[in-house]
Amino acid sequence: MSAMVPIDPTRTVKTTTLRACKAAARPIVAITAYDTPSARIVDEAGVDVILVGDSLGMTVLGFDSTLPVTLEDMVRHTAAVVRGTKRALVVADMPFMSFQVTAEDALRAAGRLLAEGGAAAVKLEGGTHVAPTVSKLVQSGIPVMGHAGLTPQSVHQLGGYKTQARDAEAATVLLDDCAALEEAGAFALVLECIPAELAEMASEQLAIPTIGIGAGAGCDGQVQVLHDLLGLGGEFMPGHAKRYADVGALIHEAVAAYSDEVRDGGFPAEEQTTHMDPSELESVRSRQARRLGSLGHIGRTNRKA
Ligand code: KIV
Description:
The structure is a single chain. This protein is an alpha/beta fold and about 300 residues long. It is built from twelve helices and eight strands. It has one domain: Alpha-Beta Barrel (TIM Barrel). It has helices at about 15-25, 35-45, 55-60, 70-85, 105-115, 130-140, 155-160, 170-185, 195-205, 225-230, 245-265, 280-305; strands at about 30, 50, 90-95, 120-125, 145-150, 190, 210-215, 220-225. It is elongated and about 85 Å long.
């Protein structure tokens, strides 16, 4: 039962809380959100971490990858999520090309996500090769969540959104990546689409918590994309996701009912209507009659011309 309860539902979640979760073997619950109303709902539902993922490029901006997402997009959506969040830790994704070129670029971009967006931490994709950048951010006081395994910003290099590290050699590289990220100071690590056995091994070897997506039940927590859980992602459903509600169908039904009522005159009804004070109405009618009396002739003449 205790594993079902957030570590302390009344206290705000800090990066250090996640370590305590791992120590207490309490699964960390993370989910994406991209705007104020959904952040408010998932926060009130008691999640520990809200990830403003660059998956927003696909879930809400309609792109077919995360690559077109800009730093401006991330700052804007992060600020919206922060405005709707009271308890959860808000982590903002660093978008494609905001951290790959130089560690200085990365520091400036991460700084904006914290200072302007209000995030408490950033997440960036990659293994050993990004460790020096992680280290630079951490030394500057910016908490970093790592992200290894399937890294969607490298989709063209990976040849699609496929499970990674399936053989012994790739699995060893992945474990080295995880160790390098921990060594660089990452406070937690997303493991995306890797075999469950490997994720479990990484979770055992690391002191920092692992948060899995498509990485089995052996991680210290789970993260999912909100739109997948709610049936808002269209036809495509990743194999690791589970649909907990069909909100898409509910929205369709509600909007169809609204359309029907507008067309048949059922909406707006008396309850949605505001009326004018009768004396004010009478006064505006007489004013209009006087105005139209003096202008109406000219107006009609102009229209004819
Ligand atoms: O962008 C995102 O939503 C993510 C999660 C899938 C981990 O990185």
